[in-house]
């Protein structure tokens, strides 16, 4: 479920997107529009387990272009069997898939059916707390421009510069043996690294969308609390329910803190990169295009509000507990007073009986 419609509630997003793409294709002369899609179906991925699963299931070649960014990200290639993507001579185009530890997978020019199988089946054994029933998807369109080396984002469309540098081979490993039947040439590693940078930004947005959905669901279950308080009514929540709500909020905060890229200005993988390609700029471009900064501020504001609601619930729980203790104390005092009164009555009756017996004895004498 894409979050774009929520960010732009006052416009027809699909129509605006088509207009953007039409304007860009007219401006650049590029006509082949492709899609990059991010999927988030787990809280985290165990990257070592991901590597094992991919090698065992289909013998995928991890990090085929030698980026050196493993285990920050796992890169594989998958064939695009769509008839419209077949090359002359029967060759098959391959798309790129990037798997991040944050539980997010980003696919460039890979059919949805292929990705559905990968996300919902192949990667599940490597997922930590998977949530396939709450799968979040977010996509952008992109155009490959062979006339430019740098890349950019116009509107919500990525212009991916694929012009080779002075040497078309891999700058890390010029002797890299790689199948070139898909593109008839080895793609420069710069293009792959650029895709990783854009993918990281898109993965961040999609992970944020998961937290937005979870928080919206949480708030929908507590929206009646302010109204009930304003009416002076008691809150109809049991101790178990209040503890559950508190636990859900703590879980949300734990996920936000766990995925540090949501709050950090630059993910670790860019610090680990050996290349001066301005990759952090591409990462920031995606964040601006998808309003990530604004959404994080909104999310933090909602979390603060949810925390206030949780404090109200905990206050009610403490109040109820205090009232219960007071009634227990009152009951214990009442019981103690009852026993004391009973003892006094018993002693009084015993004295009366003794006095009566004494009186009778004196009368007889």
The secondary-structure element order is: HHEEHEEEHEEEEHHHHHH
Content of β-strand: 5-15%
Can you give the helix content as a percent range?
Answer: 40-55%
Widest sheet, order of strands: 3-4-5-1-7-9-8
Radius of gyration: 33 Å
Figure out the total of helices: 10
Please report the total strand number as a whole number.
9
Which key features would you list for this structure?
365 residues, two-stranded antiparallel ribbon, alpha+beta, seven-stranded mixed beta sheet, 9 strands
Could you characterize the architecture of this molecule?
This protein is of the alpha+beta class and 365 residues long. The chain is built from ten helices and nine strands. The strands form two sheets. It has a seven-stranded mixed β-sheet with strand order 3-4-5-1-7-9-8, sandwiched between helices. A two-stranded antiparallel sheet has the order 2-6. α5 (189-220) runs antiparallel to α7. The longest helix has 73 residues, at 292-364. The radius of gyration is 33 Å and the shape is elongated.
């Amino acid at each position: 479920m894409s979050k774009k419609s929520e960010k732009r509630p006052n416009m027809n997003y699909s129509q605006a997107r088509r207009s953007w793409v039409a304007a860009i294709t007219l401006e650049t002369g590029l006509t082949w529009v492709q899609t990059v899609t991010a999927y988030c179906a787990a809280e985290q991925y165990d990257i070592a387990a991901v590597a094992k699963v991919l090698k065992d299931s289909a013998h995928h070649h991890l990090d085929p272009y030698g980026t050196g960014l493993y285990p920050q990200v796992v890169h594989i290639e998958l064939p695009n069997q769509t008839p419209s993507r077949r090359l002359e001579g029967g060759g098959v185009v391959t798309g790129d898939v990037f798997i991040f530890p944050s539980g997010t997978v980003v696919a460039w020019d890979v059919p949805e059916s292929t990705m559905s199988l990968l996300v919902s089946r192949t990667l599940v054994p490597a997922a930590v707390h998977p949530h396939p029933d709450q799968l979040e998807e977010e996509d952008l369109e992109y155009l490959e421009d062979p006339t430019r080396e740098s890349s950019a984002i116009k509107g919500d469309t990525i212009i991916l510069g694929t012009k080779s540098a002075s040497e078309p081979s891999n700058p890390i490993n010029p002797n890299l043996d790689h199948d070139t039947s898909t593109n008839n040439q080895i793609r420069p590693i710069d293009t792959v690294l650029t895709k990783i940078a854009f993918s990281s930004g898109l993965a961040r947005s999609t992970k944020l969308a998961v937290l937005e959905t979870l928080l919206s669901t949480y708030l929908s279950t507590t929206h009646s609390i302010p109204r009930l308080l304003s009416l002076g009514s008691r809150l109809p929540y049991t101790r178990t329910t209040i503890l559950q709500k508190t636990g859900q909020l703590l879980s949300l905060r734990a996920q936000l803190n766990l995925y540090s890229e949501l709050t950090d200005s630059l993910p670790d993988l860019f610090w680990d990169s050996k290349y001066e390609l301005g990759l952090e700029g591409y990462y920031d471009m995606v964040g601006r295009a998808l309003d990530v900064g604004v959404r994080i501020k909104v999310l933090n504001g909602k979390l603060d509000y949810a925390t206030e609601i949780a404090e109200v619930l905990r206050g009610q729980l403490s109040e109820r507990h205090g009232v219960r203790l007071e009634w227990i104390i009152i009951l214990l005092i009442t019981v103690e007073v009852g026993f004391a009164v009973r003892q006094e009555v018993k002693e009084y009756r015993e004295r009366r009986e003794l006095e009566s017996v004494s009186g009778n004895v004196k009368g007889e004498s």
